[in-house]
Design goal:
With about 260 residues, the chain is α+β, with helices and mostly antiparallel strands. The protein folds into 2 domains: about 140 residues, Fructose-1,6-Bisphosphatase, Chain A, domain 1; about 110 residues, D-Maltodextrin-Binding Protein, domain 2, CATH 3.40.190.80. The chain is built from 7 helices and 14 strands. Helix 1 runs antiparallel to helix 2 and helix 5 packs parallel to helix 6. The structure holds D-MYO-inositol-1-phosphate and calcium ion (CA) (3 copies). The site of one calcium ion has 6 residues, from strand 4. It catalyses: a myo-inositol phosphate + H2O = myo-inositol + phosphate.
Length: about 260
């Protein structure tokens, strides 16, 4: 029988030590070392080294588990447990020295995410959750906001790097949200967008074209903080489905209706 609270403690240690490495590398980081994986899709040796450290650390916690990772350090084979890792979420912020970038680690048991850890490196905030046990930031329980409608809400989002075929629908959504809400923020890290919804610092978040490692940990943290996470059609295909809508629950229907109006 696996002691999940022990697994969580060890996962936090792995995330934080990768964070120490990333923070240290940032001090001497040279933008010339940046590589491009695709249009506006940047990566550095820091992402890759951090991922190796994380995979090595997590392999010791649950030997024989699978991995889904952004930089491809390890592969999945259909095992019972899968770690879903983004070693550095917010690479563009990191490269430019703009705060808000994080290590994100989710653990899936069969088809269900059961553990999430997101460690924000600049503000030393570690957000985490175990399924059914609530969500926390640095040991303190967190809860989603009480905003009752879009009119009282601050909305986070991410601009797509590609998939520009959907750009018009996306811009329509922004246009409407701009007029209806307190404002829109683009923080540069989907994992942190989700954690800030969980902590009540934003009331909702939506983005398309994300990958499982961007959202696995953060989505569990939102749900455990009392929020709601769906795709754009009220379904639950947000892990692999590349559409995510997260909110405090109270504004979810209104938010979703607005997206459905503009989305195909
Ligand atoms: C990115 C961030 C960003 C989102 C991008 C992601 P990365 O992840 O989460 O907020 O808008 O779509 O790819 O590349 O910094 O790990
Ligand atoms: Ca990336
Ligand atoms: Ca990411
Ligand atoms: Ca990344």
């Amino acid at each position: 029988m696996i002691d999940l609270s022990q697994v969580l403690k060890q996962t936090i240690e792995v995330a934080e030590s990768a964070g120490v490495f990333i923070r240290k590398e940032r001090q001497t980081f040279d933008v010339k070392s940046v590589e491009q994986k695709g249009l506006n899709d940047l990566v550095s040796y820091v992402d890759k080294e951090a991922e190796k450290m994380i995979v090595e650390g997590l392999s010791k916690i649950l030997p024989g588990s699978d991995f889904i990772t952004e930089e491809g350090t390890a592969q999945t084979e259909g095992k019972e447990f899968t770690w879903i890792i983004d070693p550095l979420d917010g690479t563009t912020n990191f490269i430019h020295g703009l705060p808000i970038f994080a290590v994100s680690i989710g653990l899936r048991h069969l088809d269900e995410i059961i553990l999430g850890v997101v460690y924000e490196i600049n503000f030393h905030e570690c957000f985490y959750a175990l399924k059914g046990k609530g969500a926390f930031c640095n040991g303190t329980p967190i809860k989603v906001s009480k905003a009752a409608n879009l009119g009282e809400s601050l909305i986070a989002t991410g601009f797509p790097y590609s998939a520009f075929n959907q750009i018009d629908a996306y811009l329509d959504a922004l246009k409407m949200l701009m007029q209806k809400t307190h404002g829109i923020r683009r923080l540069g890290s989907a994992a942190m967008d989700l954690c800030y919804v969980a902590a009540g610092r934003a009331d909702g978040f939506f983005e398309f074209n994300l990958k499982p490692y961007d959202v696995a940990a953060g989505a569990l943290i939102v749900k455990e903080a009392g929020g709601m996470v769906t795709d754009f059609r009220q379904g639950d295909d947000y892990l692999f489905g590349r559409e995510i809508l997260a909110s405090n629950g109270l504004i979810h229907q209104e938010f979703d209706a607005l997206l459905q109006d503009v989305w195909d």
